[in-house]
Design goal:
single chain, alpha/beta, Rossmann fold, globular
Length: about 270
């Protein structure tokens, strides 16, 4: 398994540079092509009429060109050998979901409620992507500075299909780690008699150094996972995302929702 195309969301957020730099460092480490994607969000103006859309087009594109120029500068500075910029008239969620079909990983930022750049966003971008993306989504916290690749990675393991997909998708990142901590978290009965040891053996065959930790069943699972990540000094978390979409409402499980709201390290999720 390899990761050869990475898409990173480019916007005017105060945290965009950190997100782009992280994705660029990943691209260098994995020898991947990096795509910086910016969006007009133009569908937000559809109800206002065509005249309003046309009036906004020039200003929207000009602003995004500035953001994409920053993407170019960061990608070049980090030594990315293959990269490109894209600009589309679309909402970020819809545009990134489409682009995920032709990529191995999508990198986005955690929603910052205090950032004016996301004040008018139609819902949580990471949540929408998790439920609609064909590929795993790596979500960057809006607080803190992070570098990749991560040397200590926490895998939240319950034996579910979602967690299994997350582990499989994260193998290129796991191979770059010096230690993978498998945290047993409410393992399903279908996961086998000894799911932690089984996963450790599977990952060991990929040349990974692993250790297994049993996590007591807490009342608030998301908080427990974040606490465990802090205790283990993890630099990246890998986990399954749980939930489903009903009409326009995005429904996520409690643990997933807690992680998206309170994450302290980058999190790679697969649904």
């Amino acid at each position: 398994m390899s990761c050869k195309t990475i898409v990173v969301h480019v916007d005017h957020s105060a945290h965009a540079a950190t997100r782009i730099r992280y994705a660029a460092q990943l691209a260098v480490r994995l020898d991947a092509h990096l795509v910086g994607s910016a969006f007009s969000g133009i569908s937000r103006y559809v109800e206002a009429g065509v005249e309003v859309i046309l009036a906004q087009m020039s200003a929207l594109r000009q602003g995004n060109e500035t953001a994409l120029a920053r993407f170019d500068a960061i990608a070049a500075a980090e030594g990315v050998l293959s990269y490109e910029r894209r600009y589309e008239n679309d909402e970020p969620a819809g545009g990134l979901i489409t682009q995920s079909r032709y990529a191995d990983l999508v990198v986005v930022g955690q929603t910052d409620p205090d950032d004016p750049a996301t004040a008018h966003a139609a819902g949580s971008l990471p949540a929408q992507l998790l439920l609609g993306s064909a590929r795993p989504v790596l979500v960057m916290p809006y607080a803190g500075q992070f570098s990749s690749p991560a040397s200590r990675i926490l895998v939240a393991w319950d034996g579910s299909l979602e967690a299994t997909r997350a582990v499989a998708c994260s193998l290129p990142l796991l191979r770059a780690a010096s230690l993978v901590a498998i945290v047993l978290f409410r393992p399903a009965a279908s996961a086998g008699r000894d799911p932690g040891a089984d996963l450790a053996l599977y990952l060991a065959r990929h040349g990974l150094r692993c250790e297994v930790h049993a996590q007591p069943v807490p009342i608030d699972g998301g908080v427990a996972l974040l606490s465990c990540a802090a205790d283990l000094q993890s630099e990246l978390m890998v986990m399954g995302a749980y939930g489903h979409a009903r009409l326009r409402e995005v429904l996520l499980g409690g643990v997933t929702e807690t992680i998206l709201e309170s994450m302290t390290v980058p999190v790679l999720m697969a649904h």
